[in-house]
Design a protein that fits this description.
Layout (H helix, E strand, L loop, with lengths): L1 H9 L26 H7 L10 E7 L7 H12 L3 E7 L3 H7 L5 E6 L4 H7 L2 E2 L1 H6 L4 E4 L6 E4 L1 H18 L11 E5 L3 H12 L3 E5 L3 H10 L3 E3 L1 H6 L6 E5 L16 H4 L2 E6 L8 H8 L3 E4 H17 L5 H11 L1
Parallel strand pairs: 1-2, 1-3, 4-6, 7-8, 7-10, 8-9, 10-11, 11-12
Antiparallel strand pairs: 3-5, 5-6
Bound molecules: NADP nicotinamide-adenine-dinucleotide phosphate (NAP).
Amino acid sequence: MGQYGLISRLLSPKYGGFLTFGSLASGKESASGQPTLSDLNNIYGLRRINRQTKVYGLIGKPVGHSKSPLIHNAAFREIGYDGIYVPFLVDNVKDFLDTYNTPDFAGFSVTIPHKEAALKCCDEVDPLAKAIGAVNTIVRRKSDGKLIGYNTDCGGAISAIEDGLVGITGSTGESPLKGRCFVVIGAGGAGKALAYGARDKGCKVFIANRNYDRAKLLADSLGGEALSLEQLNTFQPPRGAILANTTSVGMHPNISETPLAKDALRNYSLVFDAVYTPINTRLLREAEECGAVIVSGFEMFARQAIQQFLHFTGVGAPEQLMRDILVRSL
Ligand code: NAP
């Protein structure tokens, strides 16, 4: 029952259930946690599910707000892949993975607060994800059932920023990030992913964080430098610098907030914001007014999901469909 029981309702046809209950409309449930008939059919495609259907899902707490079931299920249907993607409300990620350990459970997305604990549960971890200390994607390898961990948050954000820079510099064959100054605001999960990704591409990385000790810890771990938020206001980076906000400042409903004063934005060639609700944050609007190229957290979100889909299925994702669904849902 409730949110924990949603998976037994959604996976009922896979395990031979004759029927599962759905409500006619949200608010009309006859028992706690019933999905609507519309969601059962239109999001989860319940009529397609059979004993062979592979199960994927989002491990997190909370998971109810996530857009991932919308986009991954639609993408499975689009390419004719026999899979279902469900929300897994999980308290303890190790217990969860030990329990759901059959080949049926083929892959997982991982979100707050489990990205670090999930890494420790993987049998093998991609080197960049290991350096970051967090995985957001786990795939069960078909040949031996081992769990392989990746971090597509990093690749999603960094590739979006590289594409934004190519718009300025043109393509030169090597990463346009190489040799640039890359300033990350925030030292949490997204901050680490951006900072390691940028360092990996040959950037000089600066970390500015509200809690200075966390900034210092992260900066020291990757050979970068730490700044306080006060120092960031007057920081003069070299030409061509990148600024990446990885805090939740400016996120809905606090959309009038911004992590850095507009005047300071003039020092950057490209400004990225991990926040994607709204897509066009105050930071991005002001950065654009200052002449910077802007890259939205929407791009990071879309690209991490697209890369994740490739890890899950081995097949390229229907990118435009996933982006269209995501835009409509925000
Ligand atoms: P997290 O691990 O909790 O880290 C939060 C960071 O934000 C910390 O550095 C924290 O500073 C800082 N922070 C929070 N509130 C602040 C405030 N009022 N003023 C200044 N700094 C503040 O969270 P996360 O997972 O990294 O997520 C951060 C943001 O990135 C969220 O908005 C999330 O939605 C977004 N995100 C987007 C994507 C995407 O795909 N676009 C992916 C992941 C995350 P302290 O250390 O001082 O507490």
